[in-house]
Amino acid sequence: MSYRVIQWATGTVGVHSVPAIAAHPDLELVGLWVHSDSKAGRDAGEICGSDPVGVIATQDADALLALDADCIVYMANSDLRPDGVVDDICGMLAKGFNVVNTSFVPLLHPASTSAAMAGPDLLARLEAACQEGGSSFYTSGIDPGFGNAGITIHALALSKEIRTVRMMEIVNYATWDNPFTMFEIMGFGKPDPSTSLLLAPGSTTLAWGPVIELVADALDVELDGITEWHELIHADEDFTIASGPIAAGTISGMRFEIRGMVGGEPRIIVEHVTRLRDDDAPHWPEGHGYRIEIDGEPCLKIELELSSHVGDHNHAGCLATAMHVLNAIPAVCAATPGVKTMLDLPVYSGRHLLR
Length: 355
Prior knowledge:
By secondary structure, the protein is an alpha/beta fold. Helix content is 28%, strand content 26%.
């Protein structure tokens, strides 16, 4: 069976999604929404650097929502418009479209108290829209998503007892060409953390708290709360990354933790170690991807490194983010109406992708 799919936006993840849909034997691209005037009216494949696919990009949302399609792949920018994203998605669900999302990451677990920071009625709105349209909704990616919660939830089934769970991303972001996120959201190239939206109190909890709460739900554990911690390094000289210049004295690396507290102790932790130069902060954990560390019986350590035949690890991470929701589409379309998480869907894989 082939599922008819509308792609919503071609940003840093969506640009990978369009060619992947076009090449996927289970999916058929039938529409593409774009934000930019310069992309409207062009072939979707051309916009994304691949061969033409015969689908013309449009800014006419109403025309796309009048199409006969099974699923919308939602990847529009959510950094400064989370309310607009939720409005978009609820409207799509209410019209009967199943939706998979990588855009607004707190929706990985909309029932969590962390996600509720984005709106106290978030889950109720999404669920009501699903029931109205008879549709299903699912959010994932690589991080938040498979690179932390997805690996961990399955790995915990190997445990006799569990003391702590640590989910880490250790990645050099220097080749990621996304100036707005790198500079305005994360705060690289800025003089101090007061100019970083990501490091503002509550921001990392909003983004990664749902990962912690999803793992806590899998363990049937009640958290006391979630706390945040971070430390920074500053550039000792001027240098340039794909997103632009980093001046001496400005933020050039960050390490932060989001800690799920149980009994007054951090027991379920997400940690990010983000460098722009491999040799910086040698006292920080070293690695090249995602690491899961479970202290218990037995103790577990899992490493996931991403690479690509046509790009680097950042290219691979964006592609993996897209694929984890694209490969979920058959399961999401087959699910009963409602908001779904990794705990709700059956195990899914790369069906029909062995070439």
